[in-house]
Here is the input.
Amino acid sequence: MKQIFLLVFILALLVTGCNEKENNMPEEMPSDFDFLIQSGVQSKNEINTFENIVIKDLIVEGTASTESSFSEEEMKKIYQKMREINIMEPKGLMPEKANCMQTPYEEDKWKIKLNGETQTIYLNGEYYETTDDAQQLIEL
Here is the structure.
């Protein structure tokens, strides 16, 4: 009986261990953490913590920009959300089957820097279907 329990326990460890990607992001926010997110049709909306700028697409009226920065506490919360989805690891953002497309569509461009590494992510909203990874980015 002990052998069966041990075998089931080891099998459960192997199955759960194989399904999760290792998260190499530090638990504490690194001092060099910054990000740039460009979103919307033609990626005209922007949040840029590198330069502390926010740009809003006003569509017909052009764009409006202002200097703005997040507090240390807000940056830590954003970092933790990015850590939860393991943002520095490669993402599957294109649906396997793209049956339906839309025009115009949103394009999101992400640039995240931490611990001297930079990750660039491009998310295309051309397809109605989204992957789980893409949905996590959209929700963030």
Remarks:
- The longest helix spans residues 2-19.
